[in-house]
What we know:
Structural class: mainly alpha
CATH architecture: Orthogonal Bundle
Strand content: under 5%
Number of strands: 0
Amino acid sequence: MANLLEPKTAPQIRVTDSQIKLLKEFTYALRDIHPRDDRSFRWAISMGAGLLNLTHQDIAETFSVSRPTVTRWINGQNSPHPAVRPTIYKWMIDQSEEAIKENQERLEVVAA
């Protein structure tokens, strides 16, 4: 069985300019979520998938779980163990920060 604490690298993420502010707010919110809060986990995984343009399959491959497992996480039918959730949150924070950085650099090049 794969180790959930060592996520794979996600595909490169492209976001629209208007999503940069939302990504910053999302990243800030992720830092305050308690690992045992199931409702917040569902919100985070669903919002993260949407903001980062990730499919359930992208998330599943990253954490070595099945696509139906990710769907069940989002639908609230089950959740990963609370000890694993901080790793998922950290990965989403990293992906968000990378998307923000790449898009800000792209905007600087376009503006120049």
